[in-house]
Design brief:
single chain; alpha+beta; Aminopeptidase; globular
Length: 90
């Protein structure tokens, strides 16, 4: 794969980092790139001195909610379109 396979958008303003977007190309899905990007976001947030990392995902994407829960995020709120989650950082 020589093309762009994934993108990560992360904001770090201690004490909180915000995972704004993780996207993987259709051709690269299922290769673990999304998981690698999430782990990278956690590492970058820790290195920036953040004590937690938050995100919002779409309520109609339960696989995203499950994936983030697998990586330690907990749901904190939900509205008609979004699920808000937070993960403490050591």
């Amino acid at each position: 794969m020589d093309d762009l396979s994934g993108v990560l958008v992360l904001s770090t303003t201690p004490p909180t980092a915000h995972l704004m977007n993780v996207a993987v190309s259709a051709e690269a899905r299922g290769c673990g790139i999304g998981s690698q990007l999430i782990r990278w976001a956690i590492k970058l947030a820790q290195e920036a001195g953040c004590t937690e990392i938050s995100l919002a995902t779409h309520v109609d994407m339960p696989n995203n909610v499950a994936l983030y829960a697998h990586f330690g995020w907990k749901e904190t709120a939900r509205d008609a379109t979004r699920v808000m989650m937070v993960r403490p950082l050591p």
